[in-house]
Amino acid sequence: MLKKTVCCAFVVFSVGWFAANRIFNTSARTDNNVLTSSLAQADKQQAQPPVNAAERDEAIAVIKKRIVGREDEPAEKVFKNIEILKGKKASRLPGMMSALTGLLGVNCTYCHVKGQWDSEEKPTKQTARKMFLMIGGINKDYFEGKNAVSCWTCHRGNPHPPIQ
Length: 164
Known about the structure:
Blueprint: H1 2-24, H2 34-45, H3 53-67, H4 75-78, H5 92-104, H6 123-142, H7 151-155
């Protein structure tokens, strides 16, 4: 527990320090609005194809069809390779997956192999799982379990946080 707390504290401290350093270290910048300039530069570097709503909607429809009549069963009994939602209702999965496309500005195939949703082939799927655990730990340890920190806190619709 102590190791987890120290790790989360380090992450929160590092992100805060990095952001403050970027905002207040203006000696090398000519733009008066450093934060806006940094975010604009990050957005240019992270050009992604727009989220394919049709692809997302088709994938979500497949998930919903698979859940019919099993909405209240644990997600791991309805789907393969479930880790983050173990013990949670299967009905939570479609909303969670749909939200991620907007929170990260990516298509479903950024983390999944189309048509093989349970595949572990893509490393981005493992990264997403790690990020969910990190967010959960931060919210539990620092915000009394409230959903104060989310993917949006850092990502702002980008697959990589603009502060990187």
